[in-house]
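User: For a benchmark we're assembling, each entry needs the component sequences followed by a predicted structure for the full assembly. Here are entry 17's components. Please fill in the structure.
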Amino acid sequence: MDSEKYLAQLHEIQNMMQKSSKFLSLSGLSGILAGIYALIGSGIVFFMEKDFAYPIRFDSREFLLVTIIAALILLFSFVTGVFFSMRKARKKHELIWNKISRLFLMSFLVPLITGGLFAIILVSKREFALVSPVTLLFYGIGLVNASRYSFETLRNLGFVFILLGLLNTLFVQYGLYFWMFGFGVCHIIYGAFMYLKYDYKKP
Amino acid sequence: MTSIISDINKIFDHRIRLGIMSVLMVNDSVDFNRLKELLEVTDGNLASHIKALEQSEYIIIKKQFIGKKPNTTYEASPLGKQTFAKHLAALEQLIKTSK
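Assistant: Structure for entry 17:
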């Protein structure tokens, strides 16, 4: 039957167009784990915060602790993301490092590094309250930007982060809650959604 | 119906040639190795299909040097893009009418 052949051709066209222009090796599992790291890290800060001595001094134990936790969350999330992407790419017989993954990473990292530097400068000027909204906002912009080269739904997650960042700017005293909800809860929900939609094979 | 059939292009009636054109429709330019990776074909096989598309003037081959290494990239020609878009529209039309 000819129409079956035409349908197969259409599928092939669609598949090739998507495969060649999108980085689709991102795994939902990375999102879930990144969310868990963020919740563990911010949970530790949450329970220790009441014992913090204010104002925070740069040479204090508290400052060192928060900095180390933030760096560890970032490091673990990045390593996890790379690990699961490599695993997914290998399963699909694709190379992880190609033009599209480079474009994806660049469009994500430029806003992210800008925001990171911005946050570091804010800390150096003792503007601690704005660190949470700034990280939420720039992370969201990075996601919206990078979604062009990956799953389109990544854009929606980006918009959620931008919205949270703006709300957090209005209510700066709740920084930790906004941060936990965004990087923790939203990551887990989105990661689980992506995992069930694209990665999980029904038995 | 006959006009739809005439837009179906025999040259695209092969998985690899169809794949090459699909990739070139959404990417400005692509090199040989990237095409090979995407289509999962051997060098010789890919080269022969590229040649067929080049002879129909559907793709443009650009040769340049990156440092000292020669680098060949492929682009869809305006004619190729137009013909492929017609082919795609005809495919969709045929599937619609057959349902």
